[in-house]
User: Which sequence fits this backbone?
Protein backbone atom coordinates (compact mmCIF):
# COMPACT_ATOMS: atom_id res chain seq x y z
CA UNK A 1 0.00 0.00 0.00
CA UNK A 2 1.32 3.45 -0.89
CA UNK A 3 1.83 6.01 1.83
CA UNK A 4 -0.61 8.75 2.70
CA UNK A 5 1.65 11.69 1.94
CA UNK A 6 -0.71 14.42 3.16
CA UNK A 7 1.54 14.51 6.23
CA UNK A 8 5.23 13.67 5.80
CA UNK A 9 6.33 12.32 9.14
CA UNK A 10 9.94 11.77 10.15
CA UNK A 11 11.32 10.64 13.48
CA UNK A 12 14.20 9.70 15.71
CA UNK A 13 14.68 6.14 17.00
CA UNK A 14 16.60 5.89 20.26
CA UNK A 15 16.30 5.32 23.98
CA UNK A 16 15.67 8.09 26.54
CA UNK A 17 15.85 10.77 23.85
CA UNK A 18 13.77 13.59 25.28
CA UNK A 19 16.84 15.87 24.81
CA UNK A 20 16.76 15.11 21.03
CA UNK A 21 18.82 17.45 18.84
CA UNK A 22 17.09 16.04 15.75
CA UNK A 23 13.52 16.87 16.74
CA UNK A 24 14.44 20.46 17.58
CA UNK A 25 16.55 20.84 14.41
CA UNK A 26 14.00 19.46 11.95
CA UNK A 27 10.98 21.13 13.58
CA UNK A 28 12.75 24.48 13.12
CA UNK A 29 13.78 23.55 9.59
CA UNK A 30 10.20 22.69 8.58
CA UNK A 31 9.00 26.00 10.04
CA UNK A 32 11.70 27.96 8.19
CA UNK A 33 10.83 26.22 4.91
CA UNK A 34 7.08 26.67 5.58
CA UNK A 35 6.54 22.91 5.21
CA UNK A 36 3.29 22.76 7.16
CA UNK A 37 2.63 19.15 6.15
CA UNK A 38 5.97 17.95 7.63
CA UNK A 39 6.31 16.64 11.16
CA UNK A 40 9.20 15.24 13.26
CA UNK A 41 8.60 13.07 16.33
CA UNK A 42 10.63 11.01 18.78
CA UNK A 43 10.18 7.23 18.84
CA UNK A 44 11.59 6.56 22.30
CA UNK A 45 12.01 2.77 22.35
CA UNK A 46 12.99 1.01 25.56
CA UNK A 47 13.85 -2.09 23.45
CA UNK A 48 14.68 -2.33 19.74
CA UNK A 49 11.90 -4.91 19.21
CA UNK A 50 9.39 -2.10 19.81
CA UNK A 51 10.38 -0.82 16.39
CA UNK A 52 7.95 -3.40 15.00
CA UNK A 53 5.05 -1.50 16.60
CA UNK A 54 5.67 1.63 14.49
CA UNK A 55 3.26 2.04 11.57
CA UNK A 56 5.71 2.49 8.69
CA UNK A 57 2.98 3.65 6.32
CA UNK A 58 2.84 6.88 8.30
CA UNK A 59 6.61 7.55 8.20
CA UNK A 60 8.93 8.73 5.41
CA UNK A 61 12.26 8.43 7.22
CA UNK A 62 14.09 7.97 10.50
CA UNK A 63 17.22 9.11 12.21
CA UNK A 64 18.75 6.51 14.56
CA UNK A 65 20.74 7.26 17.71
CA UNK A 66 22.22 5.49 20.75
CA UNK A 67 21.87 2.59 21.43
CA UNK A 68 20.30 1.32 18.18
CA UNK A 69 22.71 2.27 15.36
CA UNK A 70 23.86 -1.34 15.09
CA UNK A 71 20.77 -3.17 16.36
CA UNK A 72 18.54 -1.58 13.68
CA UNK A 73 20.24 -3.63 10.90
CA UNK A 74 17.94 -6.61 11.47
CA UNK A 75 14.90 -4.60 10.33
CA UNK A 76 16.36 -3.10 7.15
CA UNK A 77 15.58 -4.22 3.60
CA UNK A 78 18.83 -2.83 2.25
CA UNK A 79 21.95 -1.10 3.61
CA UNK A 80 24.05 1.42 1.70
CA UNK A 81 27.65 0.25 1.09
CA UNK A 82 29.24 2.94 3.27
CA UNK A 83 26.92 2.19 6.21
CA UNK A 84 27.64 -1.51 5.72
CA UNK A 85 31.39 -0.92 5.90
CA UNK A 86 31.05 1.36 8.94
CA UNK A 87 28.74 -1.14 10.67
CA UNK A 88 26.30 1.50 11.90
CA UNK A 89 23.16 3.14 10.49
CA UNK A 90 21.92 6.55 11.63
CA UNK A 91 19.52 7.37 8.75
CA UNK A 92 16.70 5.30 7.23
CA UNK A 93 14.77 6.14 4.10
CA UNK A 94 11.36 4.46 3.75
CA UNK A 95 10.21 3.99 0.17
CA UNK A 96 6.60 4.17 -1.01
CA UNK A 97 6.31 0.39 -0.78
CA UNK A 98 7.77 0.39 2.76
CA UNK A 99 11.28 -0.78 1.89
CA UNK A 100 13.70 0.36 4.62
CA UNK A 101 17.09 1.52 3.30
CA UNK A 102 19.85 2.24 5.85
CA UNK A 103 22.52 4.91 5.48
CA UNK A 104 25.22 6.49 7.63
CA UNK A 105 25.52 10.28 7.53
CA UNK A 106 27.60 10.58 10.74
CA UNK A 107 30.79 9.99 8.78
CA UNK A 108 29.95 12.91 6.45
CA UNK A 109 29.20 15.24 9.36
CA UNK A 110 32.41 14.26 11.16
CA UNK A 111 34.63 14.54 8.08
CA UNK A 112 33.31 17.92 6.96
CA UNK A 113 33.52 19.47 10.45
CA UNK A 114 37.00 18.05 11.18
CA UNK A 115 38.67 18.76 7.82
CA UNK A 116 39.02 22.57 8.09
CA UNK A 117 40.87 22.23 11.41
CA UNK A 118 43.42 19.58 10.40
CA UNK A 119 47.06 20.64 10.23
CA UNK A 120 49.91 18.70 8.58
CA UNK A 121 51.10 17.32 11.95
CA UNK A 122 47.69 15.76 12.73
CA UNK A 123 48.70 12.36 11.36
CA UNK A 124 47.75 10.23 14.38
CA UNK A 125 44.44 10.10 16.24
CA UNK A 126 43.47 8.76 19.65
CA UNK A 127 39.81 7.68 19.57
CA UNK A 128 38.15 7.46 22.97
CA UNK A 129 35.27 4.95 22.97
CA UNK A 130 34.02 2.11 20.80
CA UNK A 131 30.29 2.81 20.31
CA UNK A 132 28.29 3.52 17.15
CA UNK A 133 29.71 7.04 16.76
CA UNK A 134 33.30 5.77 16.88
CA UNK A 135 32.66 3.45 13.92
CA UNK A 136 31.91 6.40 11.61
CA UNK A 137 34.92 8.27 13.01
CA UNK A 138 37.28 5.36 12.27
CA UNK A 139 35.92 5.16 8.72
CA UNK A 140 36.78 8.83 8.14
CA UNK A 141 40.25 8.52 9.69
CA UNK A 142 41.01 5.64 7.33
CA UNK A 143 39.76 7.71 4.41
CA UNK A 144 42.03 10.60 5.45
CA UNK A 145 45.05 8.29 5.99
CA UNK A 146 45.24 9.24 9.66
CA UNK A 147 46.66 6.45 11.84
CA UNK A 148 44.46 5.79 14.86
CA UNK A 149 44.54 4.07 18.22
CA UNK A 150 41.29 3.16 19.98
CA UNK A 151 40.97 3.54 23.75
CA UNK A 152 38.42 1.39 25.57
CA UNK A 153 37.47 0.54 29.15
CA UNK A 154 37.52 -3.11 27.96
CA UNK A 155 40.18 -3.13 25.25
CA UNK A 156 40.24 -5.79 22.53
CA UNK A 157 43.21 -6.70 20.37
CA UNK A 158 44.80 -3.59 18.88
CA UNK A 159 43.15 -1.28 21.43
CA UNK A 160 44.50 0.18 24.66
CA UNK A 161 42.93 1.00 28.02
CA UNK A 162 42.83 4.46 29.61
CA UNK A 163 45.61 3.56 32.05
CA UNK A 164 47.89 2.87 29.03
CA UNK A 165 47.72 6.50 27.85
CA UNK A 166 51.23 7.73 28.65
CA UNK A 167 52.98 11.04 28.00
CA UNK A 168 54.48 9.48 24.85
CA UNK A 169 51.04 8.43 23.56
CA UNK A 170 49.69 11.96 24.11
CA UNK A 171 52.73 13.49 22.39
CA UNK A 172 52.42 11.13 19.41
CA UNK A 173 48.65 11.35 18.93
CA UNK A 174 47.92 15.04 18.45
CA UNK A 175 44.30 14.52 17.33
CA UNK A 176 42.13 13.27 20.21
CA UNK A 177 38.46 12.43 19.63
CA UNK A 178 35.96 11.75 22.39
CA UNK A 179 33.24 9.52 20.93
CA UNK A 180 31.81 8.64 24.36
CA UNK A 181 28.83 10.41 26.00
CA UNK A 182 30.97 11.29 29.06
CA UNK A 183 30.39 14.90 30.05
CA UNK A 184 26.97 15.30 28.45
CA UNK A 185 24.42 17.43 30.31
CA UNK A 186 23.52 17.04 33.16
CA UNK A 187 26.79 15.24 34.11
CA UNK A 188 28.90 18.11 32.83
CA UNK A 189 31.76 17.64 35.32
CA UNK A 190 32.66 14.22 33.92
CA UNK A 191 35.28 13.67 31.23
CA UNK A 192 37.39 10.85 29.78
CA UNK A 193 40.23 9.83 32.08
CA UNK A 194 43.29 10.89 30.09
CA UNK A 195 46.46 12.76 31.25
CA UNK A 196 45.39 16.28 30.18
CA UNK A 197 48.57 17.81 31.62
CA UNK A 198 50.52 16.52 28.59
CA UNK A 199 48.34 18.36 26.05
CA UNK A 200 49.80 21.26 24.08
CA UNK A 201 48.95 23.82 21.41
CA UNK A 202 49.74 21.12 18.82
CA UNK A 203 46.68 19.13 19.86
CA UNK A 204 43.23 19.17 18.27
CA UNK A 205 40.43 17.91 20.52
CA UNK A 206 37.11 16.89 18.96
CA UNK A 207 34.16 16.04 21.22
CA UNK A 208 31.02 14.50 19.71
CA UNK A 209 29.13 16.09 22.65
CA UNK A 210 27.42 19.42 21.94
CA UNK A 211 25.56 19.95 25.22
CA UNK A 212 27.25 21.62 27.05
CA UNK A 213 28.77 23.69 24.25
CA UNK A 214 32.17 23.35 25.93
CA UNK A 215 32.55 20.03 27.73
CA UNK A 216 35.06 19.48 30.53
CA UNK A 217 37.14 17.47 28.01
CA UNK A 218 37.30 20.51 25.70
CA UNK A 219 37.87 23.00 28.54
CA UNK A 220 40.87 21.02 29.78
CA UNK A 221 42.29 20.97 26.23
CA UNK A 222 41.70 24.69 25.76
CA UNK A 223 43.56 25.43 29.00
CA UNK A 224 46.62 23.77 27.43
CA UNK A 225 46.31 25.76 24.19
CA UNK A 226 44.73 22.97 22.13
CA UNK A 227 42.32 23.69 19.26
CA UNK A 228 38.84 22.47 20.24
CA UNK A 229 35.57 21.66 18.48
CA UNK A 230 32.32 20.18 19.76
CA UNK A 231 29.86 17.93 17.91
CA UNK A 232 27.25 20.54 16.92
CA UNK A 233 28.54 21.14 13.39
CA UNK A 234 28.83 17.37 12.87
CA UNK A 235 25.18 16.95 13.93
CA UNK A 236 23.96 19.76 11.68
CA UNK A 237 25.84 18.37 8.68
CA UNK A 238 24.65 14.78 9.23
CA UNK A 239 21.07 16.07 9.59
CA UNK A 240 21.28 17.97 6.28
CA UNK A 241 22.69 14.88 4.56
CA UNK A 242 19.79 12.82 5.98
CA UNK A 243 17.31 15.41 4.63
CA UNK A 244 18.98 15.09 1.22
CA UNK A 245 18.62 11.29 1.33
CA UNK A 246 14.94 11.42 2.34
CA UNK A 247 14.18 13.72 -0.59
CA UNK A 248 16.12 12.05 -3.37
Assistant:
Amino acid sequence: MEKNLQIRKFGLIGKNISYSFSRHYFTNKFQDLKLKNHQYVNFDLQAIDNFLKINLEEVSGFNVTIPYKEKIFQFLTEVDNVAKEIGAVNTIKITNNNQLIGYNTDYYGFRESLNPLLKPHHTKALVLGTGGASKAILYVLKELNITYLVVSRSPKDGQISYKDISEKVINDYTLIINSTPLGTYPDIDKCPNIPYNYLSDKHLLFDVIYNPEKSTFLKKGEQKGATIINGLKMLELQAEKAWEIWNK
Notes: The longest helix spans residues 232-246. DSSP finds seven helices and twelve strands in the chain.
